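Exercise 7.
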Amino acid sequence: MKRGEYFEFHNPVKILAGKSALDSLPNELERLGSKRPLLVTDKGVRAVGLLDTLLKAAGESSLVLGAVFDDVPPDSGTRTVAAAAKVYREKACDGIVAVGGGSVIDTAKAVNVLVTKGGDDLVAYSGAGAITGRLSPFLVVPTTAGTGSECTLVAVVRDDERARKLLFVSASLLPDAAILDPRMTLTLPPLVTAATGMDALTHAIEASICLGKNPLSDVYADTAIRLVSERLVHVVRNPSDTEARLDLAVASTMAGIAFSNSMVGLVHSLGHATGAVCHVPHGVAMNIFLPHALEYNLESRAAEIGRLLLPLAGPEAYHRTPEAGRPAAAIARVRELQDTLSGLAKLPRRLSETGKVGKEHHAAIARAAIDDASIAYNPAEATLADCLALLERAD
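Solution. The predicted structure, written as tokens, is:
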């Protein structure tokens, strides 16, 4: 960003973080005036006992739930949103508590739109600026450390009728509060820990180089990059380290705040498209496309990519690397993380390793990427041919 250019920064979400943060859930609901919230989650969260952890920490006698909706799939869509909204209305709920990862949180955001605004046509609210005004009380308890959706004004939900991703952008989508408690991420398997960590890293890196970057978002992004770079591999190796888990949760939230105020770019355009066409998990797609998109943007963002070497590799590596070599060294550090996580957690580094994407899908993915809103913030313009070439390199 050039000095003197205009930017805005907005971060109204209350953050409660720490090893006993869950204890504050009843008080936060009372503060917001919610007495019968709908708890939105998925069956995986319930199966590993995280709802029991939440209820025990919050105190079952002081936490009254209007209903529990646990049918959110990994790639949630408009049908799921409509089903959850129906439960909310039938049980006379008065707020929402989302307990889960990105799919659960985005689903809960969309549910909040329908139950507050009325109707069942979620498509009518898609895009930027279509949702206005305050929505119903909304609390988020993340069970992954990657999406940052607990503090973003963005939601992505699959349009089940048209097999595409719907993007929603509005400050009204921001939760009232987010509770970051490391107890809620202790059960994450290595692959999910690795994928969500690289999702957070991608959010922060794209926030640092996209057209909407600004000095305040850079501060959040830099800290998130440093925390992920320092802690992710350690947590995959030492999954019960609650302090390091909390660091990753904080990194995810900070990356979410960063990109919510600066947006993202080509990695997300390709990732959204690959998820819509081939159902590749979002964090896996982010990991695969990140270094390729950095290389694509190298000519127009060399200085910004070079600066990333400092939070990625630390001050010693940054200062001993000549300025001209820093961009390539930063990308090399990303690939080093990829290789390590591939070895430790089997995190795919290429599209062919996912088992879901074939060359016959490239054209559809490229077309969807060109239509994705995130591509407008990428520093280098990307055409259909460019996207096809990137897909070939990432295959």
